[in-house]
Amino acid sequence: MRAPPFLTLICLVLFNGSLAVAQQIETFQLKNDNGLKVEITNYGGIITKIIVPDRNGDFADIALGYNTVSEYQKATPYFGAIIGRFGNRIANGSFKLGGKTYNLVKNNEPNGIACHLHGGTKGFDKVIWNAKRINKKGEQGLTLTRRSPDGEEGYPGNLDVTVTYWLTNSNELRIEYAASTDKATPLNLTNHSYFNLKGDGNGTILDHILSLNASRYTPVDQGLIPTGELAPVDNSPFDWRTPHSIGRDIDSTHPQIVYGLGHDHNFALDKSEPKTLTLAATVYEPTSGRVMEVLTTEPGIQFYSGNFLDGSLTGKSGKPYEFRNGFCLETQHFPDSPNQPSFPSSILHPGDEYTSTTIYRFTTK
Ligand code: BGC
Question: Model confidence over 156-212: pLDDT tens digits?
Fold first, then answer.
């Protein structure tokens, strides 16, 4: 099923005046037997809608975003998008690999300190992907593929990427990432969905109850770059091992909260074995009863409380997205890993296959 308002035809006019390579932007809907729906456009692989029931069986779209692709093209804080090549920040937009220094675009400047964020000015969130519907028993899927060419945004190697979204009859949205390269490159793929479990456009997320399965986190400096330390969360606003509201400590004077303007930190997930699919986060919204669990094979998760939303963007419900009207849980390797030898390696080598899986599971209570 395709949603017509999203159908756009992109034609490239070549320098000799001829028209070439028509790439279509389309939106695809995945639906399960319980009435859940997920919509995805092949522009940036953006998840444009996630429609799930509350405890009374009433459905609402819990993903922030826009009604048209052109709005995503105009201005977006990465609503729903695939992020690559490298999710999160790389200090000073530079890293060394195989004796060579690579310089990436610097497209972000927290507290006046420039860095590379989420793959650069034209990352995986701003390109058109090849899309193909797939199905298996009890699951509807969409496979997105593309080749990221050698040198794209400064990164080495031709990188072939596949991202598959699955909606299952057990009310899970499963995202599978795979990639291979012909030169060693940093790689850290994620999805940047913003959620409000009350439903899009329904105000603050500070009353949502969060828990994270993490005993340590990676503190940052003023430029939001990890210091390299893996700090225990004990007795700090970062101890989410006992569920509590997102708002509880958000105005704390803890220097880390001050740097992030609230919560914007990477957590090192507690795992007995690396790369196993384990529960990373649970979010519960008391009025609707909606629960979202996040499971991942990744070592880390960024919890971001929407601190850079400022009312300047109007979402699909017609209401502006104000400060902290959405939150993100981005599964990932740790920020700035290419410059941090003690962090799990984010380098993909030729001959190796990159794989990563994240599940958003929806229930109610
Ligand atoms: C980061 C924030 C950043 C936001 C951009 C998040 O992943 O953690 O610091 O401002 O993305 O939308």
Answer: 999 999 999 999 999 999 999 999 999 999 999 999 999 999 999 999 999 999 999
pTM: 0.94
Domains and CATH numbers, the chain: 14-364 (2.70.98.10)
Does 349 have pLDDT greater than 50? yes
Choice from 82, 217, 328 to test ligand 1 binding pocket (greatest atom count within 8 A of CB): 328
Looking at 136-282, list the stretches that DSSP marks H as alpha helix, in order from N- to C-terminal side: 255-260
Taking residues 8-24, what's their average pLDDT? 51
192: annotated active-site residue: yes
With 60 as the cut, is the pLDDT of residue 222 above it?
yes
Active site residue 273: no
- Which residues, other chains included, contact 167 with Cβ-Cβ below 8 Å and sequence gap of 6+? 30, 31, 32, 36, 37, 38, 139, 140, 141, 173
> Rg (Cα) of the chain, in Å, rounded?
20
Residue ranges around ligand 1 (CB below 6 Å): 77-78, 224, 264, 302, 304, 308, 328, 330
Please identify which of the residues 118, 192, 208, 263 carries the catalytic annotation: 192
